[in-house]
Design brief:
The chain has about 500 residues and is an alpha/beta fold. It has 14 helices and 21 strands. Helix content is about 30%, strand content about 20%. An eleven-stranded mixed beta sheet has the order 1-3-2-4-13-12-5-6-11-9-10, sandwiched between helices. Strands 18-17-19-16-20-21 form a six-stranded antiparallel beta sheet. Strand 20 and strand 21 form a beta hairpin. Bound molecules: nicotinamide-adenine-dinucleotide.
Length: about 500
């Protein structure tokens, strides 16, 4: 599908003198893809496009196919092949929510989009709109920026023994650096006061430790941004209890996934929250809610999440003035008590609107600003995206190998068999079970499964024939009837150990 349609207002909707101008509006329109989505998707997309057209957003839209229409047509990935071409060509997608078909994971479609398109930062602003929309935290106004591609979401999982499965948590310096830089740029350009980093680096010293270290390094380049680091458990508890104390939060993928839902829920305005997925070559904008099949086709859906996502999209395209025009009209609509059923409350609402009449109300208010709520403020230029700094490789020196073994045994018996296997170039240093040291000096109380990590250290580290030595060790273990299932080579990098110690070591 290569149809591109220019958005045109139904009538001259902007009051005279209120039309905002920008250099780019006089240039060629921005070309974007739109995916209507499933359930309420078509209704809220229609409402959103009407507001965009009335605001004279300089856009040409190309509809693309994904979601149920694709699955029903037998496209198992859920995305039409031509959709990839269109998104890659135009670089921006405004997306309605997609339903999860039986037997396939919606998450995986979203994850596929993020990873294939390199959308490294997920940005979710969450704000309370008291007294117009009820919230337990009237002052909250924060942004969660989540790393979007790495961490446990690499999805590399294995069953290794009868008892044990594993999921690899991958964190890269480059992946951490680009989302952290994005968060600093975001905080600086949006005039946000403070950037909080949340990790669990008291336990995961290498993976979360890297994210935290990169945060501290990049922070030195942004002395104007106040920073703090919180361990994610207490950080998340505080974000739920006192969200008003936070401004911008940057965090690895899994924590960010949970945190952004927690703060959206406590804000009271989960149905109105937008989300942006930002990459170097593409960006995807959507509401955070799902396809709401229970109210689909009934003109009940609140289009606010998608509309605010569209405002973020305009800012991303360098049209901050039109983003503000729309966002301020929306704020004024909320203040005037024009509310869809999901946020309607008799004390503060004046009129119960349908999806279409809510959009009409926003269009009527284009050019007006909120009276009580803080007006929107979008930057006038695209946020700069920085490539990670190139670094010289570290000096890497082999020092040993962790051999993982599948066996129903005891630590002492296993140690005896390993030491008796005759691996002369290595010394058995310790055995752990589920990360806890069980040999030497284990405790009988520790639960042992059939999955053992056996750490062998080189008698003479730094030998050039390291891989041959490891193969020799594995061969000796095989000959002794020991079922090894995988290895992790141990190296120092610039004299720093590139591996964790055992718990209890
Ligand atoms: P949901 O967000 O669709 O609905 C939860 C509740 O909120 C429902 O009662 C619904 O009526 C209401 N609601 C949601 N959005 C609303 C809106 N704009 N206006 C008024 N009310 C609204 O969550 P769900 O029911 O768990 O999921 C439905 C489908 O959406 C599932 O197939 C799910 O996988 C999918 N989903 C998609 C996305 C996405 O595409 N980004 C995100 C979440 C869920």
């Amino acid at each position: 599908m290569t149809v591109l349609t220019a958005l045109k207002p139904a009538s001259a909707t902007l009051p005279a003198g209120n039309e905002r101008t920008s250099a780019s509006r006089r240039a060629a329109p921005h070309r974007i893809c739109i995916a209507q989505g499933d359930g309420i998707g078509p209704e809220i997309m229609e409402a959103t496009l009407r507001v965009l057209a009335a605001a004279r957003a300089p856009l040409e839209v190309r509809p693309v196919q994904m979601g149920l229409s694709c699955w029903n047509a037998g496209v198992t990935s859920g995305i039409d092949a031509s959709t990839w071409d269109s998104i890659r060509e135009l670089g921006v997608l405004l997306k309605g929510p997609l339903s999860t078909p039986q037997g396939a994971g919606m998450k995986s479609l979203n994850v596929t989009l993020r990873k294939r398109l390199g959308l490294f930062a997920n940005v979710r602003p969450v704000r309370a709109y008291m007294p117009y929309v009820h919230s337990h935290h009237p002052g909250m106004d924060l942004v969660v920026i989540r790393e979007n591609e790495e961490d446990l979401y690499a999805g590399i999982e294995h069953r290794q023994t009868d008892d044990v499965v594993q999921c690899l948590k991958l964190v890269s310096r480059q992946g951490s650096e680009r989302v952290i830089r994005y968060a600093f740029e975001y905080a600086r350009t949006r005039k946000r006061q403070r950037l909080t980093c949340m990790t669990k680096d008291n336990i995961m010293k290498l993976t979360d430790g890297l994210f935290h270290r990169v945060f501290d390094e990049v922070a030195r380049e942004y002395p104007d941004v106040e920073t703090e680091h919180l361990i994610v458990d207490i950080g998340m508890a505080r974000a739920a209890a006192e969200p008003d104390r936070f401004d911008v939060i940057v965090t690895p993928n899994l924590y960010g996934d949970i945190l952004s839902d927690v703060v959206a829920e406590v804000s009271g305005s989960v149905g109105m929250a937008p989300s942006a997925n930002i990459g170097r070559h593409a960006a995807v904008f959507e509401a955070i809610h799902g396809s709401a099949p229970d109210i689909a086709g009934r003109n009940l859906a609140n289009p606010s999440g998608l509309l605010l996502a569209a405002a973020k999209m305009l800012a991303h395209l360098g049209e901050g003035d039109i983003a503000e025009l729309i966002h301020d009209a929306w704020l004024r609509t909320i203040e005037d008590g024009v509310h869809t059923a999901d946020v309607y409350q008799s004390a503060t609402s004046v009129r119960r609107a349908g999806t279409d009449t809510f959009a009409d109300a926003v269009i009527e208010r284009l050019g007006e600003r909120p009276r009580a709520l803080r007006p929107s403020a979008y930057p006038r230029h695209r946020l700069a995206l920085f490539d990670p700094v190139e670094r010289a490789p570290a000096r890497k020196c082999p020092v040993g190998v962790d051999v993982f073994v599948h066996a129903r045994t005891t630590p002492e018996q296993l140690a005896g068999r390993l030491c008796g296997a005759g691996a002369r170039e290595f010394r058995l240093q310790m055995i752990t079970n589920r990360g806890v040291q069980v040999w030497p000096a284990g405790l009988p109380e520790t639960l042992c499964t059939d999955h053992w990590r056996c750490r062998f250290v080189l008698q003479n580290p730094g030998n050039r024939k390291f891989h041959d030595q490891v193969l020799g060790l594995l061969h000796a273990l095989s000959q002794a009837g020991i079922e090894w299932i995988k290895t992790e080579q141990l190296y120092t990098f610039d004299e720093e150990p590139g591996y964790s110690l055992a718990q209890g070591q």
